[in-house]
Design brief:
This protein is α+β, with helices and mostly antiparallel strands. The chain has eight helices and eleven strands. The strands form two sheets. Strands 1, 2, 3, 4, 5 and 6 form a six-stranded mixed sheet that branches. Strands 7, 8, 9, 10 and 11 form a five-stranded antiparallel sheet that branches. InterPro entries: Gln_synt_N_sf, Gln_synth/guanido_kin_cat_dom, Gln_synth_cat_dom, Gln_synth_gly_rich_site.
Length: about 325
């Protein structure tokens, strides 16, 4: 499968169904289960879904007062492939796959309420200046025991005992959960997700997986979205649940989502790098812009009530508007 070949080389003959999915405002994939006989219909961009599903809240409900619902008759949009192609899914009982889609209006114009369309507009603005953002992400998540009504750390597959202590960069924890992690990396290779290093994080059953840098913000965002779904699916396969929520435990470390980025020009020159430790004036202007707008952007960086439970002083979380070189606090 190549990134530019919609159907790729994926054999869908053994698949009974596929999923056509769009991404909503909270990074949740929403869509339809479609018989594989209708694969061409999906790839041709004739699947329809309500435009309003791009703007649901974290509970999957319509946002009160949303103009995408009653004021417009909750109209359908046209779902067209993003170009990612057929993405195999390895954790379901039968072979299946999903096809990432994004929304057009009935007229064929891009639907600007689709968050992927919003990101594409930002990328186009960079391109108009001859610039390309180079992006990498780090995703933190917890494995939890799903057998109780309240979240609890998982039991070690090796010892059978529940994890009770924090394990920052603990090799034993990585080894105890190596079957799960091996399946995660295998699925990433199949889906074309550039997973890099993994560590055991501060919390019991908490892990972090880094992605490699890409000169394609849309691709990097797609990878992060698919990775989150992949981890949750493989966790279920191993008898766990996985959560990327900011603060699943009140008394344990929260989970962050880190984004690294730089800017390169048309010649591939990193415009933030002056060859030394200080960075270029453009980098400093970029940092200043982040500092100036960080409070207004809290709605994006911390969109839910649970997000703010993580933002505590002394918790390795961004509770102050500040910056520094090699500074995690």
């Amino acid at each position: 499968m190549t990134l530019d070949d919609p159907a790729g080389t994926i054999d869908t003959q053994d698949m009974e169904n596929i999923f056509g999915c769009v991404c909503d405002l909270n990074g949740v994939l929403r869509g339809k289960r479609i018989p594989t006989e209708q694969l061409d219909k999906v790839l041709e961009g004739t699947v329809r879904m309500p435009l309003s599903i791009c703007g649901l809240d974290i509970w999957g409900e319509d946002i009160e007062g949303s103009v995408m619902v009653f004021e417009t008759g909750d109209a359908d949009g046209v779902c067209v492939p993003t170009g990612r192609g057929v993405v195999p899914i390895s954790w379901t009982r039968k072979p299946t796959a999903l096809i990432p889609l994004w929304m057009n209006e009935e007229s064929g114009a891009p639907f600007l309420g689709d968050p992927r369309r919003a990101l594409a507009n930002v990328v186009d603005r960079y391109k108009s200046h001859g610039l390309t953002p180079v992006v990498a992400t780090e995703l933190e998540f917890y494995l939890i025991d799903p057998t109780d009504d309240t979240p609890a750390p998982p039991c070690s597959p090796v010892t059978g005992k529940r994890l009770t202590s924090d394990g920052a960069l603990c090799l034993d924890e990585l080894e105890h959960f190596d079957h799960f992690l091996n399946d995660v990396y295998d699925a990433c290779r199949v889906q074309g997700i550039p997973a890099d290093s993994a560590i055991s994080e501060n919390g019991a059953g908490q892990f972090e997986v880094n992605m490699r840098h890409l000169p394609d913000p849309l691709r990097a965002a797609d990878d992060a979205l698919l990775f989150k779904r992949l981890v949750r699916g493989i966790a279920r396969k191993h008898g766990f649940a996985a959560t990327f929520m900011a603060k699943p435990y009140g008394d344990r470390a929260g989970s962050g989502f880190h984004v690294h980025f730089s800017l390169v020009d048309q010649d591939g020159v990193n415009l933030f790098d002056n060859g030394g430790d200080d960075g270029t004036p453009m980098m400093l202007h970029a940092v200043a812009g982040l500092l100036e707008t960080i409070q207004e952007n809290a709605l994006t960086f911390a969109p839910h009530e649970n997000s703010f439970r993580r933002l505590l002083p002394g918790a390795h979380a961004p509770s102050n508007v500040a910056w520094g070189y090699e500074n995690r606090t």
